Amino acid sequence: METQDPGQRTAMEELLARGELTVRGRIREASNAVLLCDVAHEGVTAACVYKPVAGERPLWDFPDGNLARREVAAYLLSEATGWGLVPPTVLREGPYGEGMVQQWIEADEAAPEASLLALVEGEEAGEGWKAVGFAEVGEGRTALLVHADDPRLRRLAVLDAVINNGDRKGGHLLPGPGGGLYGIDHGVTFNTEDKLRTLLWGWAGEPLTDEALDVLHRLGGELADGSPLATRLAELITTAELAAVRQRVAQLLADGRHPAPSGSWPAIPWPPV
Length: 273
Ligand SMILES: Nc1ncnc2c1ncn2[C@@H]1O[C@H](COP(=O)(O)OP(=O)(O)O)[C@@H](O)[C@H]1O
Ligand SMILES: [Mg+2]
Hints:
Elements: H1 11-18, E1 20-26, E2 35-41, E3 44-52, H2 67-81, E4 89-94, E5 97-103, E6 117-120, E7 129-136, E8 142-148, H3 151-163, E9 173-175, E10 181-183, H4 210-222, H5 228-234, H6 239-255
Antiparallel strand pairs: 1-2, 2-3, 3-5, 4-5, 6-8, 7-8, 9-10
Helix pairs in contact: 4-6
Bound molecules: adenosine-5'-diphosphate and magnesium ion.
């Protein structure tokens, strides 16, 4: 699989980083300021989101740096895996100051989110699905929360374990055009403490795939002190957080398994969608 030299920018990164940014609107339901924009450079235009640092709601458990930088760091790690799970994301100045700018992913009408997550009656996930846990669905009834047994989600579960994602909910899974799947909203990541909150617990405790083991081995090497990737990450997250990334990669390789929830109940984000 192609991986990107962290020193080299792709054409999309170049456009996002250097293009002229025009704000088109604001995404209403977002908890932080999320601005829908156009970015234009040398006759090429793309839709993107711009999240200015100034629009971030402070979080007591993420006192260092800012969410925008964590989002860019998550993109760099996704690129280092070669899995391309995070839309191109850069840090830059915009009309409201520094922020992250990320390529907009057009929703794939043919692949709704319902193809990834479901609530089912009974105790079994069923063929092609993986069980997450039981959820209250009102009127004293519970249902089994399941996600698709999909190799793209499985890769994302590994990336989330590496970046320590605290918010992998349904709305942060975007099936894109051409069979792609993207994860978005990586502001609450890279904490030094275990914050993994995700819907993708279906493989908890199962052996990692050979592909994931290969990727993690390579990633461990690419994160070495002074490497191009480590140098870029050091501008985005703290020294302790970077050390914790290395530690999580080493732990995944030592276990050879997908992480399992530490409590009796899997840590899932709230609300889950
Ligand atoms: N790159 C993107 N492509 C398509 N839609 C996006 C993208 N980034 C954000 N969105 C949309 O905007 C909403 C809010 O963005 P999100 O990153 O979740 O912000 P917040 O930090 O406020 O939760 C998402 O739920 C999604 O619908
Ligand atoms: Mg969100």
